[in-house]
Amino acid sequence: MARSWRNFFRRTKEAEEETKNERAVGVEDEEVIEEEEPPERDLAEPEVTEEPVQEEAVEESLPEPDEVEEALGPAAAAERQEAAGEEEFGGWFGRLRRGLQRSRESVVGQLNAAVAEFRDAEDEEFWERVEEILISSDVGVTTTAKLVGELEREALEKNITSGKELRELMISHAEKMLSAGPVELDISHKPTVVLMVGVNGTGKTTTIGKLVEYLPGKAMLAAGDTFRAAAIEQLQKWGERTGAPVVARERGADAAAVAHDAVEAAKRDGTDVLMIDTAGRLHTKVNLMAELEKVKRVVERQLPGAPHEVLLTVDATTGQNGLRQAKMFKDSVGVTGIILTKLDGTAKGGIALAIANEIGVPIKLISVGEKVGDLHPFDAREFAEALFGDL
Ligand SMILES: Nc1nc2c(ncn2[C@@H]2O[C@H](COP(=O)(O)OP(=O)(O)OP(=O)(O)O)[C@@H](O)[C@H]2O)c(=O)[nH]1
Ligand SMILES: [Mg+2]
């Protein structure tokens, strides 16, 4: 079964029971929040906004169309209709294929040409050609060598002579490589603490905002990026939009102190999932890593076992650079899952293979655009098919 939001969150049995009939599922297709210049605000005191607004219960798989309209309000309903229109073109898979269009055009186009000439697995030139194609899609030298080595071996063993069988083999090997661990997000703790890390501009804050729309239960956000101007306000906007309270201090405050306040607030308020946003850039990389390590230590001290998930956003357009970043974050703060963003803006979607193979951390979510509906749980098979499948 393809991965969907339904089977993405790992929760306790009780929590599942509680919300069985009243799933608060986010709107899939809303516009991105405009990043207007935020008003000057006095953020001197740590602040926790009010209780989250109880969202209307909307069954993901679908109430009647008019019920949805009623529940969502006209603007959201119109967007939902637009989304429904998209379903005709293949729903998420269609969106994924469109998001991966540039990667597909470069990879699939070339692969089609190569595979069309494939006669048997002993043709060394053929394998060299496949290597070139994969490397140009940012699969990377190491991962390409491994993938092509495995493919060649199996194609020889099975005496494969048809392009169709070969493509199927490619997809299944890519799928295996992309499956680096459990994709589900563990939110079975109360509160569950999710630490979001990644270099600046990779999509941490917007991904938090999108993810809250899908999270079951009560979410809380912590504005742990106290470095960048407007970072706090950006998160507060997502808080307003999703109804999740935002814990913040003033700009320049200690990020670990914000995290501390937030964990206390989450424990006190019966929050299910606390998501901590962090800075993507400080004066130096060393400073950044030291700050993240401190945030993590403080959270751990307050709540043993937390943070339960450390999610790293990697911007797919940065290619091999993203791979280096992933290694760095993994080594210093430990990463439980990767969110690969901006796949829509690159022809180098092959980076997913390099990340899964060389970092050994599962990709849990991918993003193919700026809308809420562009974020989706990662499915290795689906991704491999979208990347290597026939045009
Ligand atoms: N096209 C596209 N844009 C995206 C995607 N994900 C995020 N973005 C955009 O990337 C920009 C940066 O996203 P942020 O969430 O602010 O990134 P950040 O990691 O929080 O950055 P800092 O706060 O500077 O550390 C925003 O304009 C997002 O809308 C995606 O999948 N596709
Ligand atoms: Mg940010």
Protein topology:
Blueprint: E1 9-10, H1 13-19, E2 47-48, H2 65-72, H3 74-87, H4 91-99, H5 101-116, H6 124-136, H7 141-157, H8 163-178, E3 185-186, E4 192-197, H9 204-214, E5 219-224, H10 231-242, E6 246-248, H11 255-269, E7 273-278, H12 285-302, E8 309-315, H13 320-333, E9 337-341, H14 351-359, E10 363-367, E11 375-377, H15 380-388
Parallel strand pairs: 1-3, 4-7, 4-8, 5-6, 5-7, 8-9, 9-10
Antiparallel strand pairs: 2-6, 10-11
Magnesium ion binds at residues 204-205, 225, 231, 277, 280.
Q: What does it look like?
A:
The protein is an alpha/beta fold and 391 residues long. The chain has 15 helices and eleven strands. The strands form two sheets. A nine-stranded mixed β-sheet has the order 2-6-5-7-4-8-9-10-11, with helices on both faces. The protein has a two-stranded parallel sheet with strand order 1-3. α13 links the parallel β8 and β9. α8 packs across α15. It binds guanosine-5'-triphosphate and magnesium ion. The site of guanosine-5'-triphosphate has 23 residues, from α9. Magnesium ion binds next to α9.
